[in-house]
Every structure is written in structure tokens, then in C-alpha cells.
């Protein structure tokens, strides 16, 4: 079984945003990190936004970030939402429940084996969340060219610090 590029890119976008954390990212950032076309990513991000998995912020300083609930999504849930066909062979039901007839269907054991394999594949994907596959974030961030977000620490202006009493 092979996943479509659309599903691959969807997983990569979610992984990138999970590693990135709180800050906003742009489609350009993700495109450069993975070497993927911005046009393809725009379609993917639009769908991920429609699903509520990615939050988008419009404007000059806008971008996108992972919706909080997305961290607990399983890889299987994402694959099911982005793939359009899990019929490994023509006699298995497609997305619409349709299947092509086959002359050996009444005695075929292969169909059941392939159906079981598909279920096992998706069951394994259901065991892993985006949060889990995005760690450890440091090494992944380095590979993706993501610099760590340094939290701002308030600095006391000079002269406002307490003076020790002798």
C-alpha cells in the first residue's frame, strides 16, 4: 500500500507544526524545510484548516500553527481523512462502497487476507499520535531548520533593582 503525496504532505505539515511549537510558521517555511512545492502545500493547509487541525492567522505577520487538539490525533485518523482509496484490489470496497466483480469471489480467500492486512495497517497507525511522532523535537527541529523559540524574559531596568542594606 502506498499513501498519496497529499497524505504524505499533510503528515509532514502537522509534524513540522508540532515540532515548531507555539510560534507561527508560514507555508514558505514548510516548503523550504521539506523541498515541497508551495502550491501543493497551500491545498494541503487549506484542508487541514477546514478539518480544524491547523489554525491560520491572516495578515502581514500571519502564519499557521497546530491546533491544540491536533497533538492527540493519531496518524491513522489523519491518513483516513486524507486518503481517498483503501481498496488494495478491485474486489475490495472503495470509498463509496463499490467493488468490481470477480469470477472467483465465491471461493476467494485472498480478499479476506488483503482486508485483514488493511485493517492491521490502519490499526498500527492508530497507535501513534502526532505528539509522539514529533519527538524528540530538538533533533527534528535541527533537521527542519527550525530555530528554538526563546521565551522572552522580562528585564528589570537599571536603577529599579533593590539596593542591599548594610
Automatic annotation (TrEMBL):
Keywords annotated in UniProt: DNA-binding
Any Gene Ontology CC annotation: cytosol
Entry keyword DNA-binding: yes
Annotated InterPro entries: Tscrpt_reg_Rrf2 (IPR000944), WH-like_DNA-bd_sf (IPR036388), WH_DNA-bd_sf (IPR036390)
PROSITE patterns the UniProt entry points to: HTH_RRF2_2
Transmembrane domains' residue ranges: none
Molecular function per GO: DNA binding; DNA-binding transcription factor activity
Record's keyword annotation contains Lipid biosynthesis: no
PANTHER family in alphabetical order: HTH-TYPE TRANSCRIPTIONAL REPRESSOR NSRR, WINGED HELIX-TURN-HELIX TRANSCRIPTIONAL REGULATOR, RRF2 FAMILY
Protein known as: HTH-type transcriptional repressor NsrR
Amino acid at each position: 500500500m502506498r499513501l498519496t503525496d497529499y497524505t504524505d504532505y499533510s503528515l509532514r505539515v502537522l509534524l513540522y507544526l508540532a515540532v515548531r511549537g507555539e510560534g507561527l510558521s508560514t507555508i514558505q517555511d514548510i516548503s523550504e524545510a521539506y523541498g515541497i512545492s508551495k502550491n501543493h502545500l497551500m491545498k494541503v493547509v487549506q484542508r487541514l484548516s477546514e478539518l480544524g487541525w491547523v489554525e491560520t492567522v491572516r495578515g502581514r505577520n500571519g502564519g499557521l500553527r497546530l491546533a491544540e487538539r491536533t497533538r492527540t490525533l493519531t496518524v491513522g485518523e489523519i491518513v483516513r481523512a486524507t486518503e481517498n482509496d483503501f481498496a488494495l484490489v478491485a474486489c475490495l470496497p472503495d470509498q463509496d462502497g463499490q467493488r468490481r466483480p470477480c469470477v472467483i469471489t465465491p471461493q476467494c480467500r485472498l480478499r479476506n487476507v488483503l482486508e485483514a492486512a488493511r485493517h492491521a495497517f490502519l490499526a498500527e497507525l492508530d497507535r501513534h499520535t502526532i505528539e509522539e511522532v514529533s519527538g524528540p523535537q530538538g533533533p527534528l527541529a535541527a533537521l527542519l531548520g527550525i530555530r528554538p523559540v526563546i521565551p522572552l524574559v522580562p528585564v528589570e531596568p537599571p536603577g529599579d533593582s533593590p539596593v542591599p542594606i548594610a
